[in-house]
Amino acid sequence: MSTFTEPEERVELRKQVAKLAGKYGREYFTEKARAGEKTTELWLEIGKNGYLGINIPEEYGGGGGGIGDIAAVCEELAAQGCPLLLMVVSPAICGTVIAKYGTEEQKQRWLPGICDGTGTMAFAITEPDAGTNSHNITTTARRDGDGWILNGRKIWISGVDEASNVLVVGRTEDAKTGKLKPCLFVVPTDAPGFEFTPIAMEMVAPENQFQVFIDDVRLPADALVGDEDGGLAQLFAGLNPERIMGASFSTGLARFALEKATAYAKERTVFKAPIGSHQAIAHPLAMSYIEIEMARLMTQKAAALYDAGDEMAAGEAANMAKYAAAEAACDVVDRAVQTHGGYGASQEYGMAALLVATRVGRIAPVSREMILNFVSMHSLGLPKSY
Ligand SMILES: Cc1cc2nc3c(=O)[nH]c(=O)nc-3n(C[C@H](O)[C@H](O)[C@H](O)COP(=O)(O)OP(=O)(O)OC[C@H]3O[C@@H](n4cnc5c(N)ncnc54)[C@H](O)[C@@H]3O)c2cc1C
User: Fold this and answer.
1) Of 119, 135, 167, which closes a domain?
2) Where does the Acyl-CoA dehydrogenase/oxidase C-terminal domain start and stop, copy by copy (predicted)?
3) Does 192 sit in the ligand 1 pocket, CB within 6 Å?
4) pTM score
5) What is the DSSP string of 241-298?
6) Would the CB of 123 count as within 6 Å of ligand 1?
7) Which of 20, 75, 178, 367 has the fewest CB atoms within 10 Å, i.e. the most exposed one?
8) How far, in Å, CA of 386 to CA of 370, rounded?
């Protein structure tokens, strides 16, 4: 008989990751972020413990698990106040795409570093002029003898400064117009002609976002991952995991905020009883508890469908999970700020710092509007609106 609970090993994994992340904690994380430093020790420690590559096949240094496992790691880190944005891109998007479509040699070259954290890979699809409309990307690869020459511009690319390589989504010169037939290239961050500059953000996070300039970057033939005519399937192999990870990032942060707000509501007394005895404080937190649990359940469903190989059903569930999780996270952080009164805006209690981090969940990796477009069209059969 199947149940709605996660397998015992997954529950144990959550406990172990929470314990590890708890050693670092929110204070460590925000101190690093505010000082403009990285959380490399934590990244390498989760790598050393096998959590970073838990979804990657064992023969390449991974744990042989699924997206459900790496999503659990991502959620538990965030629930301890240590959300690691690059988990979404390095193991979940890049690791999945390379494990599925890479050659044996490419897997041996890149996957072990993704697993132990010494060869982090960023992911670049978004372009300044294309934005949400990925069909309009113009990063273009031209054949050059045996290899390629790549040109283009990317924006909002996370963690380029911490990455050894970037998995860049482009198109070949022959497929320059019309429906996107994406091609995926692994580009070393120190390649001549590859430049990146940070974008000043209001988010309290150790990871930076970058604008990337790719000017005549020469790549060997085997920089291309998968087939040049492979089409959208190769890209989507990474995008459903991205949405599931985005959802887990949000539910983890949401749990962190709810726990802090609940603890504060129990202890802070200004009239006769703790503020949590007032329904005006208690009910919004109770609503958040329900919303977060619903989003977690949908995230687990999406991961289970993805790991079972049902990509179509996983696509719908991953979109819905990402939507529900971002909404739940934005709402609970707003309520947590309110619960803390003046301290809600303080650095000491750290709630306001979560406002931007959770708000980004409504925009990236796919915006709430595009999810609503997807559900309107694919789930409800309504006409395409764009
Ligand atoms: C912190 C952060 C990290 C990121 N990391 C990465 C990364 O590592 N790699 C990467 O490739 N990208 C990354 N992104 C980019 C992210 O995926 C995009 O910002 C996102 O997809 C939205 O694209 P855009 O910013 O160009 O918005 P736009 O496409 O300009 O859209 C602006 C607004 O218009 C709405 N809109 C557009 N078209 C429609 C429509 N047809 N119907 C209804 N509404 C519409 C959008 O929903 C949005 O609200 C990151 C972004 C952020 C903020």
Assistant:
1) 119
2) 230-377
3) no
4) 0.97
5) HHHHHHHHHHHHHHHHHHHHHHHHHHH-BSSSSBGGGSHHHHHHHHHHHHHHHHHHHH
6) yes
7) 178
8) 10
**CA-365 nearest atom, ligand 1:** 17
Asked whether residue 65 is domain-assigned, the answer is yes
Ligand 1, closest atom to CA 368?
47
Ligand 1 neighbourhood includes 363 CB (under 6 angstroms):
yes
Q: Atom 24 (ligand 1): residue with closest C-alpha?
A: 131
The best mutation among 132, 169, 214 to test binding of ligand 1, ranked by most ligand atoms within 8 Å of the C-beta, falls on 132
Is residue 343 a part of any domain in this protein?
yes
Backbone angles phi, psi at 58, to 5 degrees: -60, -35
Q: Which of 176, 309, 324 is nearest to 247 (CA)?
A: 324
* Residues 33 and 155 placed together within one structural domain of the fold: no
Q: Quick check: 1 pLDDT over 60?
A: no
Rounded average pLDDT over 224-229: 91
Express each pLDDT in 298-326 by its tens digit. 999 999 999 999 999 999 999 999 999 99
pLDDT tens-place string over residues 235-266: 888 999 999 999 999 999 999 999 999 999 99
The label of the residue with tokens 């999780």 reads 325
Neighbours of 173 (CB within 10 A): 13
Mean pLDDT of 42-65: 98
Protein residue with its CA nearest to atom 37 in ligand 1: 132
Task: Say if 386 falls within a structural domain.
Answer: no
